Amino acid sequence: MLAGLTTLPAQALTPGPAAPHWDLKDTGTPAVRFRGLAAVDRATAWVAGTQGTVLRTTDGGESWRNVSPPGAADLQFRDIEAFDARRAVVLAIGEGEASRVYRTEDGGTTWTESFRNTDAHAFYDCLTFFDRRHGLAVSDPVDGRFRALSTSDGGRSWTVLPDAGMPAALDGEAGFAASGQCLVASGARDVWLATGGAARARVLHSSDRGLTWTATDAPIPAGDPARGVFALAFRDRVHGLAVGGDYRADQPSPQAAAATGDAGRTWRAAATPPPAYRSGVAWLPHSRTAALAVGPTGTDLTTDAGRTWRTVDPGSYDTVDCAPDLGCWAAGEQGRVASLEN
Question: Which of 93, 106, 129, 273 could form a disulfide with 135 if both were Cys (CB 3.0 to 4.6 A apart)?
Answer without folding.
Answer: 129
